[in-house]
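anyone seen this seq b4? input:
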Amino acid sequence: FDLEAELALRVGQDAIKEQLRAFKHEVMLDARRRELGMEVGEATFPHMLFLGPPGCGKTSMARLVAQILSSIGGGAASKHLVEAQRASLVAGVIGATAIKTREVLKFAKGGVLFVDEAYRLAPPGSEKDYGREAVDELMSEMERGDPVMIFAGYNDDTMKEFMRLNPGIFRRVQRVFEFTRFSAEELAQITITKAESKRFSVGGALEALGVPELAAIYMRHTSEAQRANMNGGMVDSVLRAAKRHLDRRMGVESTLEELSTYRAEDFVKACADLPKAELLETPA
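predicted toks r here
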């Protein structure tokens, strides 16, 4: 497993990448200490908190955590990441939530349990919500360190309330990763990378359309609210819409180069197809 190669495939989030490098280094050193007979205890890995807006790569980075543990022989099966949300853990009747949560924990044993939108497990003001039962079950397993748990959510009061819900969770979370929104330049780079991975080109030989030019299109034709709320998810929406506009320019006799080349106008029109800013609220 080549962590550097994996990180190179991911745009932005430089601080998160440094934290992952440090995490791998520390786990490797403890493995070496045990190999040399030092008393460093069993390999109990830290639970984590991933904070940031949607679409910033939290799930992708969680997969790397599982791969890091696997590559060092820390007990996590290769790429064994179990993703869970409220619906995966919470049932609608008394007592059933604990059973449902235990089943997910059992499936995640030896790997990493990624609880996305963790704040939804216990919404504020819902003392009788069954999600609290799920939180208690998760907390009871955290001391064992297996599975490693990653709780993800916005970097705002909703996650602070979640952590306050059960002080045991706060005590057991040892690492906090704070993800940032992607800049227009990073969104442009992600767009080009994704397009090329599908064997499309951006601009082609007739039009200079690299990262700076596409970033300028995003700055001119999308709002800050759109970029902040959609974040990395905006790229997929733009590419889907850009392909529709590309198709409208094509005919059945078009060449392969024409069929696989996005022009600036495709992206300008795709930006106009995004949800309007007035429908969005800028997240914290």
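The mean pLDDT is 88. The chain has two domains: 3-178, 184-273. kinda curious what u guys think
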